[in-house]
Design a protein that fits this description.
single chain; about 350 residues; alpha+beta; MetI-like fold; 2 domains; 14 helices; elongated
Length: about 350
């Protein structure tokens, strides 16, 4: 139940998408170079300067925001402090361990507020809406991007690739396994040989071959490639179950009544395999998440700037030995581990539920 609860939480985060992110820009990719590699809990004062109308997002549709994020409407700049002087804002430069000496900058209240008006009208807008305090609860990465936003958005990619991989593996595996187990003979020998060949090829090599064949390394290519490497497990289970079920009395009765083989397989045999298929689907879900993370770590899966957990681990790994390398590697690694553990726990629980004769915890 704990595993199911954590999976449910991740599903809610994935479905909410950009709506719940502190940084809802596309791919949570709004980075501030001055704030790179800051620790968790870090806070900074941000000056938000309105962008010209031509540079703003053209469409603020709520569904577009959910799917792709919202184009930034402001140019954010960290500042060390500010003073309101007449009709201007005097901004102190942000100083960190790598900042160079800079002189204070002066902006007009109208430029900061993004609208004309008197100083009395514009000062509340500037102080309440244009100069804000922002907290980075999980710190920032090497590009100054919010680590929490990218970690939450990475949930969508991990769950998405797991779902697509499971659906592809179930569809292809059930088709091949059912034909091999039910028809038998030379069909079974040929398909079993195909399964053995695919089984012997490392998953990473298959993904590389599929990516080369499709001439792409995008997100959807990774989804499809991972799914096409996992169907053998399903096919072997379906074949084994089919070999035992095809000699049952109800199958013989269906043959005597003249039912077509396709109906016997789809309507009568496959529904009897629901339990084992659900269990192997949860196992494949966890395996797909791990495979995608490994591929992204190697640069063969989801490509930047998409916030894949495996890619985030790689970015942190490159900084190991520095103060920021620890949490930038640990946080996405912990997310991968918890989600995979949750699916494994769920699979164990489903196995015990569908097979009550199995000793608890075996």
């Amino acid at each position: 139940m704990l595993g199911l609860a954590f999976i449910g939480l991740c599903v809610l985060i994935g479905l909410a998408g950009h709506w719940v992110l502190p940084d809802n820009s596309p791919d949570a990719n709004n980075g501030l170079v001055q704030l790179q590699k800051e620790p968790p809990g870090f806070a900074a004062t941000i000056l938000r300067l309105p962008l010209p109308d031509s540079a703003r997002g053209a469409n603020d549709n709520i569904f577009r925001t959910w799917q792709q994020g919202r184009e930034p409407r402001f140019r954010d700049s960290p500042i060390g402090g500010y003073r309101l002087v007449g009709d201007s804002v005097l901004v102190e430069p942000y100083k960190n361990h790598s900042a160079l000496a800079e002189k204070p900058r002066r902006y007009s209240l109208a430029a900061v507020a993004g609208r004309p008006g008197s100083a009395a009208e514009l000062r509340p807008i500037v102080e309440q809406e244009r100069i804000i305090k922002r907290t980075y609860w999980l710190g920032t990465d090497k590009a100054g991007r919010d680590e929490l936003s990218r970690l939450l958005l990475g949930t969508r990619i991990s769950l998405g690739i797991g779902l697509v991989a499971v659906l592809i593996s179930l569809a292809l595996g059930m088709l091949v396994g059912a034909l091999a187990g039910y028809l038998g003979g030379w069909v079974d020998s040929m398909l079993l040989g195909l399964m053995t060949v695919v089984w012997s090829i490392p998953g990473i090599m298959l993904v590389i071959a599929i990516s080369l064949a499709l001439d792409s390394k995008g997100v959807w290519t990774s989804f499809v490639a991972v799914g096409l490497t996992m169907w053998v497990d399903v096919a072997r289970v379906v074949r084994g179950q089919m070999l035992g079920l095809r000699e049952k009395t109800f199958v013989e009765a269906g043959r005597v009544l003249g039912l077509p083989q396709s109906r016997l397989i789809v309507r009568h045999l496959l529904p009897n395999m629901t339990g084992p298929l659900i269990v192997i689907a949860t196992s494949n879900f966890a395996a797909a998440i791990l495979l995608e993370a490994g591929l992204s770590f190697l640069g063969l899966g989801v490509q930047p700037p998409a916030p894949s957990w495996g890619l985030m681990v790689n970015e942190g790994f490159q900084l190991l030995g520095t103060e920021a390398g620890l949490w930038l590697t640990l946080l996405p690694g912990l997310a991968i581990s918890l989600l995979v553990l949750s699916f494994n726990l769920l699979g164990n629980g489903l196995r015990d539920a569908y097979d009550p004769k199995t000793p608890l915890g075996s």
